[in-house]
Amino acid sequence: MTTTTTAVRARSRTSEKRLPGAWGLGLRRGSLELKQFFRQREQVVFTFAFPVVFLFLFASIFKDDVQGAGINASQLYVPAMMAAGIMSTSFQSLGISIAIERDEKVLRRLRGTPMPPAAYFLGKIWLVLVTGLAETAILLLVGTTFYDVDLPSSAVKWLDFGWIFVLGLTACALLGIAVSSVPKSGKSATSVVVLPFLVLQFISGVYIAIDTIPDWMLNIGALFPLKWMCQGLRGVFLPSSAQVLEQAGSWEFGKIALVLGAWCVGGLVLCLLTFRWKNRRDG
Amino acid sequence: MTAQANELAVDVRGLRKQYGDVTAVDGIDLEIRTGEVFGLLGPNGAGKSTTIEILQGNRGRDAGEVSVLGSDPATGTRAWRSRVGIVWQDESAPAELTVGETVRHFARYYPRPRDPEEVIGLVGLEAKVDSRIKGLSGGQRRRLDVALGVIGDPELLLLDEPTTGFDPAARRQFWDLIRKLSDEGTTILLTTHYLEEAENLADRLAIVARGRVVAEGEPAALRERHGTGATVEWTEPDGTPRAEHTDTPTKVVAELVHRFDGEIPGLLVSRPTLEDVYLRLTGQEDAR
């Protein structure tokens, strides 16, 4: 009896069906990731609502005109919070969630299936792309409705907005995947990921206007993507009269593209070198 | 028997694995035939989990040759992974998804999956299809793990202590499931520290202690080979229970018949159980 079934199964296996492709599975994983994200209320509030709440607070508290720049302080906070929102939905969200998935052995389980590793990362990209776009749209809506910010006035500005968003999101997502390997457990993930993000927000011109931060701090911030994302989005959404506030006195779009591009490459290399499907205790 | 059935699903020779100074696996040989249910039995820390993790392709080894379905698990391809089902020792399904969503999603990873609804029924979770995983009980989560292990219709199923934490009824249900899968032709390797489980399920088993196989064979044969003699128990007229371990139980009983001249109070002649064999082989006799 057993022999018969074995033979039948062996025969059916000779007509091998092809393994499912990474692209299609990536899409499926993306929808699953989104489902999981929006079902965890704390995570939604933490990564999604924080920048919105902070924009409301900062832009409502600080609203005086900025001398000689032709803008008010509220306007400064809109692009700054958009940059922080992009980093929150990519760097912070991935850094914490992947660390937890690794700790809870979700990654190890996936590795035990024939799922192509690329599908996992494609799923994360969809998650980050959708939440990043939604976050940016909400902040833009709040900014244009309440804080005197206009939508980009020309196709060129929209294009700048586009590449800053894509490069910034990609660099931060890759850094998030890399940083997920740092915490020893899922429990410590939040503090390990949030602390550097918080510090970066202070020294990159998110919470504090760029012209009031000491130069040495700004120079440290300039080593990371966030400062350049803020600067680029200011360039998109603020009038050119506001360039006087910048360290270099101009938006420096070329330099922004260079730094963000370099972080995309560097982040990818970091991910390839450090990514693990198991946590350290699992050997 | 077809040639297929005679092939080895798992062939392990001289397997070694060390963690720092601790030798977890110290030269294990295993031969598991296609279609059989093989039990890896041993106390905690004997090296069972390390061995099965190496077979899963989830842990490296320091020495030895390992072939699982004809491939070295250390270099297992996607096609190879699609033929091996894994049930981990600790559950790890995504808490926010429902049972149905998870099983249906995992089915998509495989070229020829089983029907998700059928698998959910197989593990007895029909009533929980739309429940979030975080709301399941421990036993239900383990059954979901089993569902995820078999969803790809594997040729070989590797289970690491699958019934730990089950209540007796759930354990019986799980045994039925394993028998059913085995009847369908799945080769099954399971680790356990429950003797009853190994004896009930396994066609053959290996007893592992301190990283080595100390005995191997069919459960009954193991008992024969390693359990010598018998124990004769009776009660003396003054009420004292007595027991004698002997190679000639019939002779002892004959003497007792003579002494008591008829019925012997509390007479019991027992052959060593698998548990006795197990405890002796794993050096835990004192546990009795």
What tags apply to this protein structure?
heterodimer, A: 283 residues, mainly alpha, two-stranded antiparallel sheet, 11 helices, 2 strands, B: 288 residues, alpha/beta, Rossmann fold, 3-stranded antiparallel β-sheet, disordered N terminus
Task: Give structural notes.
The complex is a heterodimer of chains A (283) and B (288). Chain A is mainly alpha-helical. Chain A has one domain. Helix content of chain A is 72%, strand content 1%. In chain A, helix 3 runs antiparallel to helix 4, helix 4 packs antiparallel against helix 6 and helix 4 runs parallel beside helix 7. Chain A starts with a helix and ends in a 9-residue tail after the last helix. The N terminus of chain A is likely disordered. With 288 residues, chain B is α/β, with parallel strands linked by helices. The N terminus of chain B is likely disordered. A six-stranded mixed β-sheet of chain B has the order 5-6-7-3-8-9, sandwiched between helices. In chain B, strands 2-1-4 form a three-stranded antiparallel β-sheet, covered by helices on one side. A three-stranded antiparallel β-sheet of chain B has the order 11-10-12, with helices on one face. In chain B, helix 4 crosses helix 5. Chain B has two domains: 222 residues, Rossmann fold (3-Layer(aba) Sandwich); 61 residues, no CATH class. Helices cover 34% and strands 27% of the residues of chain B. The longest helix of chain B is centred in the middle third of the chain and has 16 residues. In chain B, a hairpin with a 2-residue loop joins strand 8 and strand 9. At the A-B interface, helix 1, helix 2 and helix 5 of A face helix 3 and helix 4 of B.
Largest interface: A-B, 36 and 40 residues
User: What is the alpha-carbon Rg of chain B in Å?
Assistant: 23 Å
Looking at this structure, what is the CATH superfamily of the largest domain in chain B? P-loop containing nucleotide triphosphate hydrolases
Proportion of residues in extended strands of chain A:
under 5%
Sheet/helix structural class of chain B: alpha/beta
Overall morphology of chain B = globular
Separation, N- and C-terminal Cα atoms of chain B: 42 Å
What's the number of extended β-strand segments of chain B?
Answer: 12
Q: What is the CATH domain class of the largest domain in chain B? A: Alpha Beta
Radius of gyration of chain A: 22 Å
Might you state the CATH topology name of the largest domain in chain B?
Answer: Rossmann fold
Sequence of strands across the biggest β-sheet of chain A: 1-2
Helix-residue proportion of chain B: 25-40%
Our measurement of the CA-to-CA distance between the termini of chain A, rounded to an integer number of angstroms, reads: 42 Å
Oligomer: heterodimer
Taking all residues together, what is the mean pLDDT of chain B?
A: 88
Number of domains of chain B: 2
| Secondary-structure element series of chain B | HEEEHEHEHHHEHEHEEHEEHEH
What is the succession of H and E elements of chain A? HHHEEHHHHHHHH
